[in-house]
Amino acid sequence: MNEYSVCRWIMGAVLALLLLGIAVPFMHPPGTFTGLDGAAGIVDHADLWRSHGPLTAAVYGLGDLFCHQGMSRSFVVNGSQMPFCIRDVSVMAGIVVGMAAWELLQLHADPRGKAALATASLLIATMMVQWAVEQSTGADMPLLRTATGLLAGLGIGTLIWAYFENGFDRRVRAGSDRSDRDRYRGSR
Q1: CA 3 to CA 146: how far, in whole Å?
Q2: How far apart (Å, rounded) are the C-alpha atoms in residues 122 and 21?
Q3: Does the structure show a pLDDT above 60 at 150?
Q4: End-to-end alpha-carbon separation of the chain, Å?
Q5: With contact defined as beta carbons under 8 Å apart, do 47 and 103 qualify?
Q6: Which of 47, 61, 79, 136 has its CA 20 to 30 A from that of 36?
Q7: Highest mean pLDDT among 110-114, 151-155, 162-166
Q8: Three-class secondary structure assignment of the chain
Q9: Rounded mean pLDDT of 133-148?
Q10: Cα–Cα distance measured from residue 13 to residue 83, given in angstroms and rounded to the nearest whole number
Q11: Is 65 exposed, middle or buried (0-12, 13-18, 19+ CB in 10 A)?
Q12: Are residues 22 and 74 in contact, defined by beta-carbon separation less than 8 angstroms?
């Protein structure tokens, strides 16, 4: 497996989760999933997910575990809030777009360059700054949350691409060289 197939797998997994997050609410009557407010890191509604089948349980269960699922901070499709909040959905979309851009531009750009990594860091920082402003002022800024989530996702997609592109073969070789070196030392 090379770095490009790993990146494609990651991009495909994030895209699948994003698309399932949009599709699953349409598999149920309008307004089935509302008021899901909870806490990240805790599955608040396990009984509800189990009562709607395995696909719904998996998708909404992941959202329940990793996201606060605040109704006021979620996109609503088919009258139901999505399994992930606006920021998380936007980050996932940004990751897919960012990784797809590197896939398409791989012959014309180098994601390992310092400029690309600095830009990725700045893109991620926009979301952190927006979050800090929102927390300190109590302002609710869904449009800004969407925009900074997309920007951060682009940055994260760039960092993922850069990680696997930069030295993937070297890390694999280093692992085999290290084991050869350790075997040599052990035989002394």
Answers
A1: 30
A2: 28
A3: yes
A4: 34
A5: no
A6: 136
A7: 151-155
A8: CCHHHHHHHHHHHHHHHHHHHHHHHHHCCCCCCCCCCCCCCCCCCHHHHHCCCHHHHHHHHHHHHHCCCCHHHCCEECCEECCCCHHHHHHHHHHHHHHHHHHHHCCCCCCCCHHHHHHHHHHHHHHHHHHHHHHHHCCCCHHHHHHHHHHHHHHHHHHHHHHHHCCHHHHHHHHHHHHHHHHHHHCC
A9: 92
A10: 16
A11: middle
A12: no
**What gap in Å lies between CA 147 and CA 185, rounded to an integer?**
54
Annotated domain spans of the chain: 3-166
**77 backbone dihedrals φ, ψ, rounded to 5°:** -125, 135
pLDDT for position 114: 81
Q: What pLDDT is recorded for position 140?
A: 87
Share of residues in the chain with pLDDT > 70 (%)? 83
Q: Give pTM, 2 decimals.
A: 0.83
**pLDDT tier at 117 (50, 70, 90 boundaries)?**
confident
Q: What is the pLDDT of residue 178?
A: 46
Determine the Cα–Cα distance for residues 65 and 44; give it in Å rounded to an integer: 8
Q: How far is 185 from 166, CA to CA, in rounded Å?
A: 29
Residue 24, pLDDT score: 97
